[in-house]
Write a structure and sequence with these properties.
Number of strands: 6
Distance between the termini: 69 Å
Shape: rod-shaped
Strand content: 5-15%
Helix content: 55-70%
Largest sheet: 6 strands, mixed
Number of helices: 15
Order of helices and strands: HHHHHHHEEEHEEHEHHHHHH
Length: 410
């Protein structure tokens, strides 16, 4: 909030008041300032009993000192009519900072100030009647009082913002340390008490189950994910991480879709809290596949919806070695013909049906399927009837399909 100058216009009704009356008004107001400050303080304490009482070095409530100094500064300005009234900086800055650290809202702080101005105006109006200040001049005094209030609020808002920034920074630091412990395998041996203590300090209730997400930063500038405080988020990593408590709760997935709009990444499977590191590993695996375009990119995926790809594409070297051995009979076929035989073999393994069912799946004539199946039996011989060999064949062919190596039309 930017304070407006609390200066009475040079050619105003207030400046038309004889100087003797102005001096009498100021003298009475200054004499009654301590009593007025006490009255304002009592009313604030009555309306807002939760406000803490902080004492200065002399044992006086700092708020009371600030109120009295603010009244005196304003009245002295009215008497001199030069420049703008000085705002007691430290007291109101510290008051705003205290409100922020106490977790109270800025609205309640401003309500306290408005109450103070209202009570001060009543006293000033009474003094104005006693010294016969004309009503137009008193109306200008009200305007000047609220302009002065802007300056006080501005000081307090700065203190409030400073406290909020410090608290946010401390909360992020505690959450980051909590995530580091939670996602480290060793936390399982550190003891539940240590984890509970750190979670309590971070203000994070320990859930029964979690899912861990790994995010990919947008190509263009994007605001940070608007996740609530119930989720842990660490943007310091090159690929930011997040911990989602109770991921199976109603509405949780919809909330994540909204909060992560514009971001991409993967959310690992729900696991017990002690197994959070496992969920992280699956999310990291999914992100690697996204970067290789083996999983859809540009969105946030849930690992539970891509289990087949994660299982079949993760142990890449083992699957490649198994494919080399299992699909060796196709090595002497041409690339196009070998691909068609592989498609037919996979369709047969998946359907466990005859030529009509396989043909329907592939979109070809049943006679074509019969021809290919005879070739397949010639290539693999009796091994094609072995359950273990059929399982291996289906495994590697599904992996080939996920990688886009089986082509399109059959």
């Amino acid at each position: 909030m930017t304070a407006r100058p609390a200066v009475l216009a040079p050619r105003s009704a207030w400046h038309e008041v004889p100087r003797l009356q102005v001096r009498r008004f100021a003298a009475i107001a200054l004499a009654e300032a301590p009593e007025l400050a006490q009255e304002i303080m009592r009313e604030i304490r009555r309306e807002y009993p939760h406000l803490p009482v902080v004492l200065d070095d002399n044992g006086e409530p700092m708020a009371l000192v600030g109120i009295r100094r603010a009244i005196e500064a304003f009245v002295q300005h009215l008497e001199s009519s030069e420049g703008r009234p000085g705002v007691p900086p430290d007291v109101f800055h510290d008051f705003g900072r205290g409100e922020g650290l106490g977790g109270r809202s800025l609205d309640s702080l401003q309500a306290v100030y408005r109450m103070g101005v209202r009570l001060a105006w009543r006293r000033f109006a009474d003094i104005g009647q006693r010294v016969r200040i004309p009503p137009p001049a008193m109306y200008e005094l009200v305007d000047a009082g609220y302009e002065y209030l802007d300056g006080l609020v501005d000081r307090s808002v700065r203190g409030y913002a400073e406290a909020a920034a410090r608290q946010a920074g401390e909360r992020l630091r505690l959450q980051r340390r909590l995530m580091e412990q939670l996602l480290a395998d060793r936390h399982r041996t550190d003891g539940a008490d240590a984890l509970s203590e750190r979670a309590a300090r971070a203000g994070w209730p320990l859930p029964g189950r979690v899912a861990v997400g790994v995010l990919l930063r947008p190509a263009r500038e994007s605001v940070a994910p608007a996740v609530g405080q119930e989720m842990l988020l660490d943007l310091e990593y090159e690929q930011p991480r997040m911990v989602v408590p109770e991921p199976d709760a109603a509405g949780r997935r919809e909330l994540l879709h909204r909060a992560l709009a514009g971001w991409a990444g993967a959310i690992g499977p729900p696991v017990p809290l002690a197994d959070a590191a496992k969920s992280l590993r699956w999310a990291e695996a999914a992100v690697r596949l996204m970067e290789r375009r083996l999983l859809p990119a540009g969105e946030v995926l849930f690992c539970t919806e891509h289990t087949e790809a994660l299982v079949l594409l993760q142990p890449e070297e083992l699957i490649d070695d198994l494919a080399l051995r299992c699909l060796a009979p196709l090595a002497h076929c041409g690339p196009a013909h070998g691909r068609r035989l592989a498609q037919t073999l996979l369709a047969w393994l998946e359907t466990r049906g005859g030529a009509p069912e396989v043909a329907a799946r592939l979109g070809v004539h049943p006679q074509t399927v019969r021809y290919r199946l005879r070739q397949i039996r010639e290539l693999w011989g009796d091994e094609i009837d072995d359950p273990d060999r059929r399982f291996e064949l289906e495994l590697v062919l599904r992996a080939q399909r996920l990688r886009g190596r089986l082509g399109g039309a059959a």
